[in-house]
Prior knowledge:
With 257 residues, this protein is α/β, with parallel strands linked by helices. It contains 10 helices and 7 strands. It has 2 domains: 2-163, Rossmann fold; 172-241, no CATH class.
Amino acid sequence: MRHVVMYSGGLGSWGAAWQVRERHRAEIVTLLFADTLIEDADLYRFLHEGARAVGCVVTTITEGRTPWEVFRDVKFLGNTRVDPCSRVLKREPLRCWLEDNCDPDDTTVYLGMDYTEIHRYERARGYWAPWRVEAPLCEPPYPTKAMIEKVLAGRFVNPPRLYTEGFPHNNCGGGCVKAGQGQFIHLLKQRPETFAEWEQHEEDLRGQLGDVSILRDRTGGDTKPLTLAALRERYQRRPQTIDLFEWGGCGCMEEPT
Length: 257
């Protein structure tokens, strides 16, 4: 039997890897990582230190483009509803790797979703069929992020620095096309240079695609584009008008509904 952990560089996927290794030998466990090429540098440190802590090595897949290059090529800017970046750079390459290397009758795929994300897990299981899919953090004793961090500390591995900076995930350098206003303002405050890069990339794509944006402005009952430049300017002028509780959420391992 082969066991493949979708290993993203976050606490959840490491927690899944830890649980899988508690049950199975290292030689039949694969930690599979799909690189978007815009990750925080510390992700790679955690990726490999975390793998060594469970006695495995990382298998890396790289499609070769960044999310921005994907948006340009498919002529569509990702947003909370549609994520061509995740599809092209993660789901499709990971699935191709499974098709090339794994027999569905002899392979289990593991996801790092926890018990608070069972709805995501159920959606993801359909996408990864015909492989058997499990989410160890959705099972007793339902490990939490605090529990995972405690296990990491016992193995002398520091958590990803994006978590220590208050981000809810460790992907794409703190940004995400599925993020909300609150997370992008957090990115602006914590990593202004990264925010500026996202703002410029969005503006460049608007020059190609027209009046598009990652975010939406729903004030007044009408939905219209809200660019990152407009969000930044609005926050600087009238911070009380920003929905700081709208964080959005990553969902790279399941298809959008």
